[in-house]
Protein backbone atom coordinates (compact mmCIF):
# COMPACT_ATOMS: atom_id res chain seq x y z
CA UNK A 1 0.00 0.00 0.00
CA UNK A 2 2.83 2.39 0.89
CA UNK A 3 4.57 1.64 -2.42
CA UNK A 4 1.36 2.38 -4.36
CA UNK A 5 0.96 5.69 -2.52
CA UNK A 6 4.56 6.61 -3.43
CA UNK A 7 3.95 5.85 -7.12
CA UNK A 8 0.68 7.84 -7.03
CA UNK A 9 2.38 10.88 -5.45
CA UNK A 10 5.21 10.69 -7.99
CA UNK A 11 2.71 10.58 -10.85
CA UNK A 12 0.93 13.63 -9.48
CA UNK A 13 4.24 15.46 -9.21
CA UNK A 14 5.31 14.57 -12.78
CA UNK A 15 1.90 15.56 -14.21
CA UNK A 16 1.96 18.86 -12.33
CA UNK A 17 5.49 19.54 -13.60
CA UNK A 18 4.46 18.90 -17.19
CA UNK A 19 1.53 21.27 -16.87
CA UNK A 20 3.74 24.04 -15.51
CA UNK A 21 6.71 23.54 -17.85
CA UNK A 22 4.66 23.27 -21.07
CA UNK A 23 2.45 26.33 -21.20
CA UNK A 24 1.49 27.75 -24.55
CA UNK A 25 1.41 30.70 -24.77
CA UNK A 26 4.14 31.46 -22.25
CA UNK A 27 3.29 35.19 -22.31
CA UNK A 28 1.62 37.91 -24.37
CA UNK A 29 2.11 41.66 -24.59
CA UNK A 30 1.25 44.68 -26.71
CA UNK A 31 3.80 45.82 -29.29
CA UNK A 32 1.73 48.73 -30.62
CA UNK A 33 -1.98 49.58 -30.37
CA UNK A 34 -3.96 46.70 -31.89
CA UNK A 35 -0.82 44.55 -32.26
CA UNK A 36 -0.46 41.67 -29.79
CA UNK A 37 2.65 39.53 -29.47
CA UNK A 38 2.10 35.98 -28.26
CA UNK A 39 5.17 34.12 -27.02
CA UNK A 40 4.98 30.37 -27.62
CA UNK A 41 7.02 27.32 -26.70
CA UNK A 42 6.02 25.11 -29.64
CA UNK A 43 3.25 23.13 -27.93
CA UNK A 44 -0.49 23.38 -28.53
CA UNK A 45 -2.45 25.99 -26.64
CA UNK A 46 -5.04 28.78 -26.73
CA UNK A 47 -4.97 32.55 -26.36
CA UNK A 48 -8.26 34.45 -25.74
CA UNK A 49 -8.99 37.63 -27.70
CA UNK A 50 -11.65 40.11 -26.57
CA UNK A 51 -13.75 42.09 -29.00
CA UNK A 52 -15.26 44.65 -26.63
CA UNK A 53 -13.19 45.03 -23.47
CA UNK A 54 -15.85 46.50 -21.17
CA UNK A 55 -19.32 44.97 -20.62
CA UNK A 56 -20.82 48.45 -20.79
CA UNK A 57 -19.83 48.64 -24.44
CA UNK A 58 -22.34 45.88 -25.22
CA UNK A 59 -25.14 47.90 -23.67
CA UNK A 60 -24.04 51.19 -25.25
CA UNK A 61 -23.96 49.65 -28.72
CA UNK A 62 -26.97 47.39 -28.12
CA UNK A 63 -24.93 44.36 -29.18
CA UNK A 64 -25.74 40.85 -28.05
CA UNK A 65 -22.88 38.52 -27.29
CA UNK A 66 -24.11 35.84 -29.69
CA UNK A 67 -24.35 38.36 -32.55
CA UNK A 68 -20.59 39.05 -32.58
CA UNK A 69 -18.70 37.09 -35.25
CA UNK A 70 -14.99 36.93 -36.12
CA UNK A 71 -12.82 36.94 -39.21
CA UNK A 72 -9.21 35.79 -39.54
CA UNK A 73 -7.35 37.37 -42.45
CA UNK A 74 -10.72 38.28 -43.97
CA UNK A 75 -12.23 34.80 -43.73
CA UNK A 76 -15.21 34.30 -41.39
CA UNK A 77 -14.64 31.94 -38.45
CA UNK A 78 -17.12 29.58 -36.80
CA UNK A 79 -16.59 30.99 -33.31
CA UNK A 80 -19.15 33.51 -32.05
CA UNK A 81 -19.23 35.81 -29.05
CA UNK A 82 -17.19 38.56 -27.44
CA UNK A 83 -14.27 36.19 -26.68
CA UNK A 84 -12.38 34.35 -29.39
CA UNK A 85 -10.05 31.46 -28.52
CA UNK A 86 -6.96 31.68 -30.68
CA UNK A 87 -5.61 28.20 -31.48
CA UNK A 88 -1.83 27.93 -31.13
CA UNK A 89 0.30 25.13 -32.53
CA UNK A 90 4.07 25.44 -32.91
CA UNK A 91 4.55 28.85 -34.63
CA UNK A 92 1.07 28.93 -36.18
CA UNK A 93 -1.87 31.06 -35.05
CA UNK A 94 -0.83 34.58 -36.04
CA UNK A 95 -2.92 36.75 -38.29
CA UNK A 96 -5.26 39.70 -38.61
CA UNK A 97 -8.33 39.13 -36.41
CA UNK A 98 -11.42 41.32 -36.67
CA UNK A 99 -14.72 41.16 -34.83
CA UNK A 100 -18.02 42.39 -36.27
CA UNK A 101 -21.58 43.07 -35.25
CA UNK A 102 -24.56 41.23 -36.75
CA UNK A 103 -24.81 43.66 -39.67
CA UNK A 104 -21.09 43.24 -40.47
CA UNK A 105 -19.86 46.53 -38.97
CA UNK A 106 -16.28 46.42 -37.68
CA UNK A 107 -16.11 46.52 -33.88
CA UNK A 108 -12.41 45.90 -33.22
CA UNK A 109 -9.26 44.53 -34.83
CA UNK A 110 -6.06 42.90 -33.57
CA UNK A 111 -2.97 41.73 -35.38
CA UNK A 112 -1.48 38.72 -33.60
CA UNK A 113 2.25 38.08 -34.05
CA UNK A 114 3.87 34.85 -32.89
CA UNK A 115 7.25 34.97 -31.16
CA UNK A 116 9.16 31.75 -30.61
CA UNK A 117 12.09 31.12 -28.28
CA UNK A 118 14.86 33.70 -28.85
CA UNK A 119 17.37 30.95 -29.63
CA UNK A 120 15.43 30.22 -32.83
CA UNK A 121 16.32 32.51 -35.71
CA UNK A 122 14.43 32.13 -38.99
CA UNK A 123 14.09 35.61 -40.55
CA UNK A 124 17.66 36.93 -40.93
CA UNK A 125 20.93 35.32 -41.93
CA UNK A 126 24.00 35.74 -39.75
CA UNK A 127 27.27 37.29 -40.93
CA UNK A 128 30.68 37.63 -39.28
CA UNK A 129 29.36 40.82 -37.62
CA UNK A 130 26.20 39.11 -36.34
CA UNK A 131 22.66 39.63 -37.57
CA UNK A 132 22.89 43.45 -37.53
CA UNK A 133 25.77 45.32 -39.18
CA UNK A 134 26.07 48.85 -37.83
CA UNK A 135 28.44 51.67 -38.70
CA UNK A 136 28.76 55.44 -38.23
CA UNK A 137 30.42 57.77 -40.79
CA UNK A 138 31.52 60.17 -38.04
CA UNK A 139 30.91 61.17 -34.41
CA UNK A 140 27.96 63.48 -35.09
CA UNK A 141 25.37 61.03 -33.75
CA UNK A 142 24.23 59.38 -36.98
CA UNK A 143 24.62 55.65 -37.59
CA UNK A 144 23.33 53.01 -40.00
CA UNK A 145 22.32 49.39 -39.44
CA UNK A 146 21.62 46.81 -42.13
CA UNK A 147 20.56 43.18 -42.23
CA UNK A 148 20.13 40.35 -44.72
CA UNK A 149 16.79 38.61 -45.09
CA UNK A 150 16.69 34.84 -45.23
CA UNK A 151 15.99 33.76 -48.80
CA UNK A 152 12.75 32.04 -47.81
CA UNK A 153 11.49 34.52 -45.19
CA UNK A 154 11.50 38.09 -46.46
CA UNK A 155 9.55 40.31 -44.09
CA UNK A 156 9.24 43.88 -42.86
CA UNK A 157 10.12 45.99 -39.84
CA UNK A 158 7.40 45.87 -37.18
CA UNK A 159 9.05 47.95 -34.46
CA UNK A 160 12.31 49.79 -33.73
CA UNK A 161 13.71 50.87 -30.39
CA UNK A 162 16.90 52.94 -30.06
CA UNK A 163 18.01 54.09 -26.63
CA UNK A 164 20.87 54.68 -24.24
CA UNK A 165 18.67 54.16 -21.16
CA UNK A 166 15.91 51.63 -20.61
CA UNK A 167 13.05 54.09 -19.99
CA UNK A 168 12.73 55.38 -23.56
CA UNK A 169 9.28 55.60 -25.14
CA UNK A 170 9.09 54.83 -28.85
CA UNK A 171 6.44 55.64 -31.45
CA UNK A 172 6.00 55.34 -35.22
CA UNK A 173 4.42 57.73 -37.70
CA UNK A 174 1.55 56.89 -40.06
CA UNK A 175 3.89 55.72 -42.81
CA UNK A 176 5.32 53.01 -40.55
CA UNK A 177 8.82 53.99 -41.73
CA UNK A 178 9.90 56.63 -39.19
CA UNK A 179 10.43 55.95 -35.49
CA UNK A 180 11.05 58.28 -32.55
CA UNK A 181 12.44 57.14 -29.20
CA UNK A 182 12.63 59.69 -26.40
CA UNK A 183 13.83 59.77 -22.82
CA UNK A 184 15.03 62.45 -20.45
CA UNK A 185 18.63 61.98 -21.64
CA UNK A 186 18.45 61.22 -25.37
CA UNK A 187 16.23 61.40 -28.44
CA UNK A 188 16.62 59.08 -31.42
CA UNK A 189 15.00 59.41 -34.83
CA UNK A 190 15.19 56.30 -37.03
CA UNK A 191 13.91 55.61 -40.53
CA UNK A 192 13.83 52.49 -42.69
CA UNK A 193 14.74 52.86 -46.36
CA UNK A 194 12.58 51.61 -49.21
CA UNK A 195 14.62 48.41 -49.59
CA UNK A 196 13.50 47.28 -46.13
CA UNK A 197 16.93 46.01 -45.07
CA UNK A 198 18.61 49.19 -43.84
CA UNK A 199 17.86 51.92 -41.33
CA UNK A 200 19.40 55.26 -40.43
CA UNK A 201 19.27 56.68 -36.90
CA UNK A 202 20.23 60.07 -35.50
CA UNK A 203 20.73 60.88 -31.83
CA UNK A 204 19.67 64.52 -31.69
CA UNK A 205 21.29 65.46 -28.38
CA UNK A 206 24.59 63.70 -28.99
CA UNK A 207 27.74 65.73 -28.28
CA UNK A 208 30.66 64.49 -30.43
CA UNK A 209 33.27 66.01 -28.09
CA UNK A 210 32.04 64.25 -24.94
CA UNK A 211 33.01 60.73 -23.92
CA UNK A 212 30.15 58.25 -24.19
CA UNK A 213 29.13 56.99 -20.76
CA UNK A 214 26.39 54.61 -21.96
CA UNK A 215 26.08 52.31 -24.92
CA UNK A 216 23.42 52.64 -27.58
CA UNK A 217 20.98 49.74 -27.51
CA UNK A 218 19.19 48.89 -30.77
CA UNK A 219 16.23 46.49 -30.92
CA UNK A 220 14.58 45.70 -34.26
CA UNK A 221 11.42 43.60 -34.37
CA UNK A 222 10.92 41.95 -37.75
CA UNK A 223 7.84 40.06 -38.94
CA UNK A 224 7.11 37.81 -41.89
CA UNK A 225 4.01 37.56 -44.06
CA UNK A 226 3.07 34.55 -41.91
CA UNK A 227 2.98 36.76 -38.77
CA UNK A 228 6.15 35.35 -37.23
CA UNK A 229 8.01 37.93 -35.09
CA UNK A 230 11.68 37.97 -34.11
CA UNK A 231 13.71 40.51 -32.15
CA UNK A 232 17.31 41.34 -33.09
CA UNK A 233 19.40 43.51 -30.77
CA UNK A 234 22.83 45.10 -30.69
CA UNK A 235 24.73 47.27 -28.17
CA UNK A 236 27.62 49.55 -29.04
CA UNK A 237 29.42 52.83 -28.52
CA UNK A 238 29.77 55.04 -31.59
CA UNK A 239 33.54 54.73 -31.21
CA UNK A 240 33.22 50.97 -31.74
CA UNK A 241 31.30 51.20 -35.02
CA UNK A 242 32.71 54.40 -36.54
CA UNK A 243 33.80 53.81 -40.13
CA UNK A 244 34.96 56.79 -42.24
CA UNK A 245 33.66 57.25 -45.77
CA UNK A 246 36.06 56.69 -48.65
CA UNK A 247 38.88 59.20 -49.06
CA UNK A 248 39.30 61.22 -52.22
CA UNK A 249 42.67 60.66 -53.92
CA UNK A 250 44.30 62.16 -57.00
CA UNK A 251 47.64 62.08 -58.81
CA UNK A 252 49.83 65.16 -58.45
CA UNK A 253 52.80 64.04 -60.53
CA UNK A 254 54.28 60.88 -61.97
CA UNK A 255 55.28 59.59 -58.54
CA UNK A 256 53.20 61.71 -56.17
CA UNK A 257 49.60 61.25 -55.00
CA UNK A 258 47.53 63.18 -52.49
CA UNK A 259 44.28 62.64 -50.63
CA UNK A 260 42.07 64.50 -48.19
CA UNK A 261 39.83 63.65 -45.26
CA UNK A 262 36.32 62.47 -46.18
CA UNK A 263 34.00 65.50 -46.28
CA UNK A 264 31.61 63.69 -43.90
CA UNK A 265 34.26 63.15 -41.20
CA UNK A 266 34.00 65.03 -37.88
CA UNK A 267 36.04 68.18 -37.41
CA UNK A 268 38.36 69.63 -36.31
CA UNK A 269 40.68 66.95 -37.66
CA UNK A 270 43.18 67.63 -34.89
CA UNK A 271 40.54 66.38 -32.41
CA UNK A 272 39.36 63.53 -34.68
CA UNK A 273 42.59 62.37 -36.42
CA UNK A 274 42.65 59.58 -38.99
CA UNK A 275 45.29 56.99 -39.83
CA UNK A 276 45.69 56.18 -43.52
CA UNK A 277 46.89 52.97 -45.11
CA UNK A 278 48.44 53.06 -48.59
CA UNK A 279 48.80 49.91 -50.68
CA UNK A 280 51.00 50.06 -53.81
CA UNK A 281 50.11 47.68 -56.66
CA UNK A 282 52.58 46.72 -59.36
CA UNK A 283 50.11 44.96 -61.66
CA UNK A 284 46.61 45.77 -62.85
CA UNK A 285 44.11 43.07 -62.07
CA UNK A 286 41.72 43.34 -65.04
CA UNK A 287 39.45 40.49 -63.93
CA UNK A 288 39.28 41.55 -60.27
CA UNK A 289 36.03 42.83 -58.84
CA UNK A 290 37.98 44.96 -56.39
CA UNK A 291 41.69 45.46 -57.23
CA UNK A 292 42.40 46.72 -53.72
CA UNK A 293 41.32 43.49 -52.05
CA UNK A 294 41.90 40.97 -54.84
CA UNK A 295 45.45 42.08 -55.74
CA UNK A 296 48.57 41.57 -53.69
CA UNK A 297 50.29 44.81 -52.72
CA UNK A 298 54.07 44.92 -53.01
CA UNK A 299 54.25 47.48 -50.21
CA UNK A 300 51.81 48.78 -47.59
CA UNK A 301 52.45 51.93 -45.55
CA UNK A 302 50.59 53.82 -42.84
CA UNK A 303 50.49 57.57 -42.39
CA UNK A 304 48.87 59.77 -39.74
CA UNK A 305 48.01 63.33 -40.65
CA UNK A 306 45.52 66.02 -39.69
CA UNK A 307 45.58 67.72 -43.07
CA UNK A 308 45.79 67.00 -46.80
CA UNK A 309 48.27 64.16 -47.27
CA UNK A 310 50.85 63.57 -49.97
CA UNK A 311 52.72 60.36 -50.61
CA UNK A 312 55.49 59.40 -53.03
CA UNK A 313 55.06 56.05 -54.75
CA UNK A 314 57.66 53.85 -56.43
CA UNK A 315 58.34 54.24 -60.16
CA UNK A 316 57.14 50.76 -61.12
CA UNK A 317 53.82 51.09 -59.31
CA UNK A 318 50.76 50.93 -61.60
CA UNK A 319 48.01 51.70 -59.03
CA UNK A 320 47.49 52.65 -55.40
CA UNK A 321 44.76 52.08 -52.83
CA UNK A 322 44.11 54.26 -49.78
CA UNK A 323 41.79 53.74 -46.80
CA UNK A 324 41.32 55.41 -43.41
CA UNK A 325 40.35 54.64 -39.82
CA UNK A 326 40.06 56.50 -36.53
CA UNK A 327 43.60 56.97 -35.23
CA UNK A 328 42.53 56.80 -31.58
CA UNK A 329 40.13 53.81 -31.59
CA UNK A 330 40.25 50.21 -32.70
CA UNK A 331 37.40 50.68 -35.14
CA UNK A 332 36.65 49.78 -38.76
CA UNK A 333 38.68 50.77 -41.80
CA UNK A 334 36.92 52.68 -44.55
CA UNK A 335 36.41 51.08 -47.94
CA UNK A 336 39.43 51.30 -50.23
CA UNK A 337 39.80 54.17 -52.69
CA UNK A 338 41.49 53.05 -55.93
CA UNK A 339 43.64 55.17 -58.26
CA UNK A 340 45.18 53.97 -61.51
CA UNK A 341 48.39 55.89 -62.07
CA UNK A 342 49.16 57.65 -65.31
CA UNK A 343 52.70 57.23 -66.55
CA UNK A 344 54.30 59.45 -69.20
CA UNK A 345 55.55 57.31 -72.05
CA UNK A 346 58.95 58.08 -73.52
CA UNK A 347 58.72 59.29 -77.10
CA UNK A 348 60.67 57.33 -79.65
CA UNK A 349 62.52 59.63 -82.04
CA UNK A 350 62.95 58.10 -85.44
CA UNK A 351 65.94 59.24 -87.47
CA UNK A 352 64.84 60.48 -90.87
CA UNK A 353 66.48 59.20 -94.03
CA UNK A 354 68.34 61.72 -96.16
TrEMBL record:
Annotated signal sequence is 1-23
The record's GO molecular-function terms, alphabetically, read:
cytokine activity; cytokine receptor activity
Q: Does the keyword Cytoplasm apply?
A: no
| PROSITE patterns cross-referenced by the UniProt entry | IG_LIKE
Keyword Transmembrane applies: no
Family from the record: Belongs to the IL-12B family.
The record's subunit annotation is: Heterodimer with IL12A; disulfide-linked. The heterodimer is known as interleukin IL-12.
How is this protein named in the record?
Interleukin-12 subunit beta
Amino acid sequence: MKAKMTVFVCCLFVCAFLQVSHQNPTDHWTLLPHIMVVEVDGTEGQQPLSCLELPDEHMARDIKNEDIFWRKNGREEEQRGNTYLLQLEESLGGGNYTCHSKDGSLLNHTMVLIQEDETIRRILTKSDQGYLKCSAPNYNGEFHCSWTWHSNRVGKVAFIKAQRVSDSQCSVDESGQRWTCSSGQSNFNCSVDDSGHRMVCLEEQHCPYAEESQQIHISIYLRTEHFLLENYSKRFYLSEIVKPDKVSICQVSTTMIKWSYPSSWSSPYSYFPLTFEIAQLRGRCKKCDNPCTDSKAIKTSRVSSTNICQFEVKHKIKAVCVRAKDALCNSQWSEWSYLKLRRHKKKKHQQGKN
